[in-house]
Input
Amino acid sequence: MCNCIDFSLIDTAKFLMDNDNYIILTHASPDGDTLGSGYALYYGLKQLGKKAEVICPDVIPGKYAYFLCETDHICDKDSTVIAVDIADKRLLGSLEEKFGDKVDLNIDHHITNQRYAKALYLDADASATCEIIYELLLDLNVQLNDTIAKALYTGISTDTGCFKYSCVTAKTHKIAAALYEYSIGADVINKIMFDTKSKDLLTLERMVLDTAEYHFDDKCMIITVTAAMQEKTGCSGPDLEGITEISRSVDGVIAGVTIKQTGSDTYKASVRTYEPLNASQICNCLGGGGHKNAAAAILNGTLAEVKVKILDAIKQQMEETNAWTFVTR
Amino acid sequence: MCNCIDFSLIDTAKFLMDNDNYIILTHASPDGDTLGSGYALYYGLKQLGKKAEVICPDVIPGKYAYFLCETDHICDKDSTVIAVDIADKRLLGSLEEKFGDKVDLNIDHHITNQRYAKALYLDADASATCEIIYELLLDLNVQLNDTIAKALYTGISTDTGCFKYSCVTAKTHKIAAALYEYSIGADVINKIMFDTKSKDLLTLERMVLDTAEYHFDDKCMIITVTAAMQEKTGCSGPDLEGITEISRSVDGVIAGVTIKQTGSDTYKASVRTYEPLNASQICNCLGGGGHKNAAAAILNGTLAEVKVKILDAIKQQMEETNAWTFVTR
Output
């Protein structure tokens, strides 16, 4: 949308002071950042005497229970709709039809934001939308408490891989330090978010490791998650998110590919790359897209056919970038 | 030793200003914290015009190369010996005989410090010895630079599981924020330290996952690393450190056991526990010891016999603590 107005932090704070009856939307397949942002903002607005409701298009996983609560019920009519951490209205999932064109304010940190809302406060330098919400709440003179700090910490920790990724800045750590002044139990949060998996998922990981194959002088690794594995272990969808990390965890691998069966002859290839390769360009060749280091494509055919297509695309990139002789570290 | 003098941060800084010809010792099987502390201190002392040498009892793994350098060669005679991050002189390994009773100053963060040095600056609230060295360098008016910041960040990040563990405090994050003011490439450091494993280690992990067995209503998980697996993959010793994490990664498991074969009829059991279990007490029953959540014991017998002993010890603890009915989270 071309009529999206750019808000500053101060504009955003003023907007929140001036309006009421907020519907706060989180994205589908909710993660720690969209939920942490939504609930921290909710608690802040309640302190300001506002009415607000948090609506998530999908069921919220039980692991986030420690900062959730029952929110108000806001009538759609006369409501003010806020989207948090939602770069594209399609990410509203089941709520897109109802709210996709009715978002009054979008608060986000994705540089790829599609500007679908009436107003947008975008800080692409923030490691997580929760970083933005933290600053917003300070600006609104909201008094933080343990629950708000837990929600904000969860968003920042999960979106940065626990302060591991390149999106982390000095500001990220400064905010974390401020949140540690509250009783957040960060070690427990991190254990839940990063180091707890189901017995079934561990079984699936074992099966997936059995499929590991290496190509191009071990610079490319492919792992496969078949429909049979998903059926046998009962793990699918969001359960499988961490699996792709395996494909790029091996020393020397610059193209890690996870092939996930999504239909009888349909597969989703998730590609993770390191320099000099570009995952986005590889997936473009396969009809997909994404970011420089992480991209995906949907492919049709048998598993063997799909693998050939992917390996061809990677080989082409490796030749174009002289990846055969590129020295990592 | 009962004659160990307790130093404050200021005493420590004064001692470093007043002396010269430093031999800085790191512990055997060196990790990021002992090396980061040793080299950051070295660079600081050089700025102050002092002579200093860093000595590590073992070969330093290549992954730390980005903050290492050739240090001075100090004559033992007239030297001032400093031990960093070394709680017990036995951790000096091959250097214990030579330096064990000659440490002039010990800088450490382990509450279990054995007070073997002539003077000790202990800050048990520090998440890493590198936290202490950071404060010390500030106190000494040392100008930080990219290399010093990389060394300090490495120690803090590795000793805290990348800011994940309960030892992290607001101060830890404040120091990280200060280090981010330099060009440290934290994402690259974290990738090297946490997310890179050899192809052989991944193969070993697959083999280990095949051995997973669950006991006591899935509250106990046992994984086994046999001698044959170590031989086949060429992975042993420090390579296997991360394997124990698998044993406590499964939801609901409160006793995670890794049995590693160390001889034809000898096994090392590493026990990781969550409330209400106590790993130290379990391992005491088995002739070993350690901390509340992480302990170990050496056991003799066949693998089957060893497992029976371990399961008996865990069962006893579970009964004593009513772990059968203890509700986690």
